[in-house]
Amino acid sequence: MRFIDPVLISEEVWDARFSCDYAKCRGACCQNGDLGAPVTEEEVQKIEGLLPRLAPYLSEKSQKFLRKGISEVYQKKLHLREIEANHPCPLGFVDTHGWLKCSIHQWALDTDEKPELWKPLWCSLYPLVVLYKGNSWTMNLFLTPACRSDPKAPPVLLSFLPLLQGIFGPDWAQKIREEFSERN
Known about the structure:
The protein folds into 2 domains: 1-18 and 127-184, no CATH class; 26-122, no CATH class. It has 9 helices and 8 strands. Helix content is 38%, strand content 17%. By secondary structure, it is of the alpha+beta class. It has a 4-stranded mixed β-sheet with strand order 1-2-8-7.
C-alpha cells in the first residue's frame, strides 16, 4: 500500500494495467453482483432529471421499476436499486448485438455530452474502487472474472487520473505522475 495524501492506494492498483475491452466483456460489469452501484444524493438527483431523456433506451420493465425510485439505502449507504441479483442494472439496455450498455453513457455519446459528467462516479471509475473510510480514502482494484482488458492497456491509475484529479485535485494528480516516473 502506498499513501498519497489523502488516499491509501493498494499495490495492485499501482501495478495493474487495464483498459476495458468492451467487445469481449460486453457490459458484464453492469450486470454482475447483488447490489447496485454506490451513488451520492447529487448523482441520484441528476439521474432522476435525466430519466425522461433515457426512456428511449430503456425497456418498459426498467422504466416501470425506475419510476418507483432509482436508489435505496443498504448498510447506511446509498446505492442504485437492482431489479434482482446478477440482473442488468435498470439503467442498462441491450443493443442490437446483444451487448449490455449504459443508457446514461449512450445518451451522453448521442448528444455530444461527456459520459463521465452524467454517470455515477463509481461506474465511471470501475474497476477502481475508491472508498472514504474515517478520515482518509482507500483505492483498490476489483476485477471480476468477466472483466477483459486490452492487452496494450496503460497503467490503470494513469488511465483514470483525469477523473481522480477531479476528486483529489491537481496537486494530488501531479504526485501520482511523479510516483510513476520514479517507478519506471
